[in-house]
Amino acid sequence: MVIGVVVGVVVLGAGAVGADRWAAGETQDRAVDAIEQNLEGVVGTPSVDVGSFPFLTQVWAGSIDDVTGHVQGATLGGLDATDVDVEATGVSTSEPYTADHATISATLPTASIEKVVADRSGLDLKVTLVDDKLKVSGTVLGLTLAAQIDPRVTEGKLLADVAELSLGGLKVDPSDIPGGGGARLEGIEIPVEGLPKGLVLTDAKVTDDGLRITAEGDDVVLTVQS
């Protein structure tokens, strides 16, 4: 009799665990779809984690505590980004799908920044990483141009200020560069678009791989199509 009860408890427990893991798996699949629908130009298949056991209790409560995801790459405002990390807390399990708080971090490689700087200035410039600094180099009328880019986030916009500008080895003001290209190097806006509604840029830091940006927000609306 005792043995039968024990066996029954084990079977029921195994069934509950199986149902819990099935629900977690289904939610992970939906989360993968959501990432692909809320970001443009997703590269590779997103990896997602919806938290540990037990999971069904969160579903029954109507909100998932924590969802994290990683994407190899995506496109933000026409710029290629890599190593995109997503974290959302308090994610609703019914429509409209929202997150109490969400954060997206991504790396803009130097090639993406270079494209913006070259387009904005009209000059043939290269952007490289030197000693954890973004450096700009090129040639203007046969003279070597060199400068440093200092990124900042102001009112949700990613801006880049040019510092330590030199031409032919001499420090100059951007307005002194022939052709007016130097003036266009001041306060460069790097467009970061295509983020889910409700997310705003909050930080930008130079890393070994480029410029690491972070956007976050509260009560973020998530697009999830069946």
Describe the structure.
The structure is a single chain. This protein is of the alpha+beta class. The chain has one domain. 24% of the residues lie in helices and 47% in strands. It is built from three helices and 13 strands. The strands form two sheets. Strands 1, 2, 3, 4, 5, 12 and 13 form a seven-stranded antiparallel sheet that branches. Strands 6, 7, 8, 9, 10 and 11 form a six-stranded antiparallel sheet that branches. A hairpin with a 5-residue loop joins strand 4 and strand 5. The two termini are 48 Å apart.
Brief write-up:
This protein is of the alpha+beta class. It has helices at residues 2-38, 56-61, 110-121; strands spanning 40-43, 47-49, 63-76, 79-92, 98-108, 125-130, 133-140, 143-154, 157-167, 170-171, 188-189, 200-207, 210-221.
Helix content: 10-25%
Low-confidence stretches: 1-15
Count all strands and give the number: 13
Give the overall shape, derived from the CA principal axes.
Answer: elongated
Mean pLDDT: 81
- Helix/strand class: alpha+beta
Number of helices: 3
**Share in β-strands:** over 45%
Our count of domains comes out at: 1
Order of helices and strands: HEEHEEEHEEEEEEEE
Radius of gyration: 24 Å
Give the termini separation. 48 Å
Q: How is the secondary structure organized here?
A:
Layout: H1 2-38, E1 40-43, E2 47-49, H2 56-61, E3 63-76, E4 79-92, E5 98-108, H3 110-121, E6 125-130, E7 133-140, E8 143-154, E9 157-167, E10 170-171, E11 188-189, E12 200-207, E13 210-221
Antiparallel strand pairs: 1-3, 2-3, 3-4, 4-5, 5-13, 6-7, 7-8, 8-9, 9-10, 9-11, 12-13
